[in-house]
Amino acid sequence: MSPIAIVDAGLVTSVGLSAEATCAAIRASVTNPTETRFVGGDGKWLLAQQVPMPEPWRGRARLVEMASMAAAQVLAPRMQVASQALQAPLPLLLCVAEQDRPGRLEGLDDALFAELEVVLGVPLHPSLSGVVPQGRVGVALALAQAHRLMAAREASQVLIVAVDSLLVAATLDAYGAKDRLLGDANSNGFVPGEAAGALLVAAPAARHDWPIPQIACLGIGYGNEPASIDTDLPLRGEGLMQAMKGALDMAGLAMAQVGYRIATLNGEQYGFKEFDLATSRLLRGRHEFMDLWHPADCVGEVGAAQLAVCMAMALAAARKGFAPGDPVLIAASNDDGRRVAMVVSAQGDA
C-alpha cells in the first residue's frame, strides 16, 4: 500500500469544539458527562457526553451543525494553500451510523449529505463523493476508498467527515434494554455521546503543502468476529487478530514493532477482553511495553465518529511530541462483528 497522509483533522466533542481542545482534554483525562432529557432504567436522568452547541438543534440538523463545524477546521487552512490543484472539486466521504442501528435517524444516507454540502459552501465532487454507513469502522473504509481514488489519480485530496449521536430515545432504549449503558447499577457499560470529526487526506504529491509532521496510513486490515457482543459464542479475538495481522503485514511490520495502540474501546469488558486476546496472539517473545489509549473514556461512545477521534489523537500526538512511540496501531470494532485495524506512522520532523 502506497502511504496516504492525514494532513489535518477537526473535531467537535463534549470536551472540546476543536481538534486541539479535544486532544488536550483527552490527554489530561478530562471528561464532561451531563444530565440529558432521557430517563434511564433506574428512573434517574441519564448522563451522556453532550456537545455544548450554541443552539438547541435536534435530530439531523444537529448532526449537520456538528459535521460542518468539524469540517470547517480543515477546510479553512486548505483555502489558504496557493496550489491550484486544491481548487478542484473535493471528494467528500461522509461516515454515519450503520443501517441496522436501533433508532437510526432518517435521511442519513441521502438528505444529510445534501444538507451538509449546502452548509459547507465548497465545491464537492459529484461522482467521487458518497456516504459510508458503516458505524465505527466507517472511517477506515473511507480511508481505503480515498487510497483507491488517489492511486487511480482521480483525486489528490479527500475530505472524510464522520458524525454520529447516540442521544436518540429509541437508541438509548435499545442499549438500555441490553444493560449496555453505564449507571449506578451497571459498571459494565458505556456512556453514550455525540461527536463529529473531519480528516483531510492527501496523496504523496500533495503532502508538501501542509505542516509536518503528518501521519501516514501504512496498512489497513479487516476481519470478522463470529463471537460478536450480541452472541453467546466463546470469544477468541479471531476477527480483531485477523484485522491487526492484515494491517501489520501490509505495513511490513511485526506486532512487537508497534510503538503504542489506540482503540475504539468504550468501557465495556467485552472490548478489552477481545483486544487483549487479539494482541496476545500476535506477540511472540520479549517486547517493550505498548501503551493503549481509548479516547471514549473522555468523549463517550460516539459511534461512527469514534475512529476519527482516534486518528486525530494520533496526529496531535505526532505534532505535539507526546506520542509514546511509532508507529501506532489503531483498531475499531462494530457490534455486528466487523473489525478493522490500521498501522499509522508519523512522517516528517516535529
The helix-strand sequence is EHEEHEHEHEHEEHEHEHHEE
Q: Give the CA-CA distance, first to last residue.
A: 24 Å
**Fraction in helix:** 25-40%
Number of self-contained structural domains:
2
Q: What radius of gyration results from the CA coordinates?
A: 19 Å
Give, in spatial order, the strands making up the sheet with the most strands. Answer: 5-4-6-7-1-8-12-11-9-10
Text of the CATH class of the largest domain: Alpha Beta
Q: Any guess at the CATH architecture of the largest domain?
A: 3-Layer(aba) Sandwich
The biggest beta sheet is recorded as: 10 strands, mixed
Oligomer: single chain
**What is the beta-strand fraction?**
15-25%
Topology, number of strands = 12
What is the mean pLDDT?
Answer: 93
**Overall shape:** globular
Q: How many helix segments?
A: 9
CATH T-level topology of the largest domain: Peroxisomal Thiolase, Chain A, domain 1
EC number: 2.3.1.41
GO molecular function, one term: 3-oxoacyl-[acyl-carrier-protein] synthase activity
Keywords: Acyltransferase, Transferase
Protein name: 3-oxoacyl-[acyl-carrier-protein] synthase-1
